[in-house]
Design a protein that fits this description.
The structure holds two protein chains of two kinds. The radius of gyration of chain A is 25 Å and the shape is elongated. Chain A has twelve helices and 16 strands. Chain A is an alpha+beta fold. Chain B is mostly helical. In chain B, 79% of the residues lie in helices and 0% in strands. Chain B contains twelve helices and no strands. Classes of the chains: A alpha+beta, B mainly alpha. At the A-B interface, α2, β7 and α5 of A face α8 and α9 of B.
Amino acid sequence: MAEKIIELDKISVTFKQKKQTIEAVRNVSLTINKGDIYGIVGYSGAGKSTLVRVINLLQRPSSGSAKINGDLFYEKIGNHEKVIDSKKLRKKRRKIGMIFQHFNLLNEQTVVQNVAFALKHSSLKEKEIKEKALNLLQLVGLEERADSYPAQLSGGQQQRVAIARALANDPEILISDEGTSALDPKNTLQILDLLKRLNEELGLTVVLITHEMEAVKRIADRVAVMEKGEVLETGDLLDIFINAKHKLTREFIGTEKESAKALATLGKSKLVKLGDDQECVQLTYIGSAVGESLIVKLYKDFGVVASIIYGNVEILQETPVGSLFVIIKGSTAKRKQAIEFLKKQDIIVTRVKEGEVLNG
Amino acid sequence: MVELFTKYFPNVVYQGWSGDGGWLQAIGETLYMTFWSALFGGILGLVFGIGLVLTDSDGIIPNRGAFSFFDKVVSFFRAIPFIILLAFIAPVTQKIVGTQIGTTAALVPLSLGVFPFYARQVQVALASVDRGIIEAAQSLGATFSDLIFDVYLREARSELIRVTTVTLISLIGLTAMAGAIGAGGLGNMAIAYGYNRFANDTTFIATLLVLIFVLLVQLIGDLLARILNHKNS
């Protein structure tokens, strides 16, 4: 049983704007284990940023409880509110690093001063602070830019400074609030790989908020999908990828798009018309690519002809996940046998019918 | 050269350098009034400006009552025309400095006249600090004083210098007006010795000196603001 580091229980956040009340987060419970890279995905306005701000109490919730690394930060039972004392909170916040979409570095301080700022209240002496700041910059590969100002750096470099700053107090948690969303693809990958490295080398728990599924696919272990202030589903990345329950999740993962593509191909192409003895299925399989030999096997053993109309392989948690859209042709009984066989091979078979993806 | 000057500016020469009514005294009084009222009014304005930003609804310690207090006081003093303020607070001046006339007495209305203007300018300057930067500092466990000194004031420093320059220039204008209550200075020189005595040359030189003063403040302010700005280098 993994150790829990972030426990959010029935968290709601409401904002009052004049006479309107906006429920940014509704009754969300989320547990994050130590050492995990936890991705929280959703479109903008889904409440992701508001939710993670509860973790370091930059945002005070309206109800629920938040327990971070064993310390109770916030709890509301009935009308009785319990909030961590502000001096203690400041201390605890230093153990929760956070990076932002727009980096938010101090513009009027040099790179090394920015990192040193985080250490202002540490027990270190001035000389040791500078030393540690330089070490941290070395960790993110920017030691030679120590005396530059943030505006002189590229976006990716600024974000690396922000990471060095967030790591200054040896935090156990690092929150990335759309940390790669303002970066170009190359810098995005560099930052993601850096986060992954920090997770592996320092055992850092990373909370990754993003609207880009690619970021989550690359490094996350577990995923939560948010919409309209609620968490739709949570789970292991592979699990979510293969057995997404909600349409939104599939949209994010890209399977929805794939199906749409496959169906469009089907519909447009006059050559492909599903006859009585044909049906379109999606095959999803994990691990070694077996697609090619499967098709041969289907024909040899079951007399079912399978033609591929769309195929894709993704790498999740260093595991290839393949997805094939095929049209199988054969008698009803033979097709059924073939599908049974496929299921036994740990292949997920999804029927694709008339513009709809039926999870089967 | 000296003869030529004496010929065209007889009254200027008549005023003399030193002594009562001399140019040195007038320049000194203007500098004296500008310096001290900039200091007092500046501190007051800074406090109110910071107060306005911190207690505003999106500030770090939102407080409607305190914000409303700062806002009302600033608006009240800004609404009074300076020339009326001079007369209006004369009794207060009497209490504080013991007299209603003279250079030192002018410091009270000058400080009170300049502080609301400065407070609004400071408010705008500090509000330009990105909310995200403040949030990032909070996430690092910054204390209240860290947020004010290392984040708000430091991040806005070049903007603050710019608004301070504008305020100083407007203050120099006010010191000239304070000449009306016998505060002395170059304004007094231009009006009392120049205009009222039909000595246009004296008015001209006094104006020229004020202009040079303003220009110097502007140049130094611009230079400092540029040197201390690292936002878009």
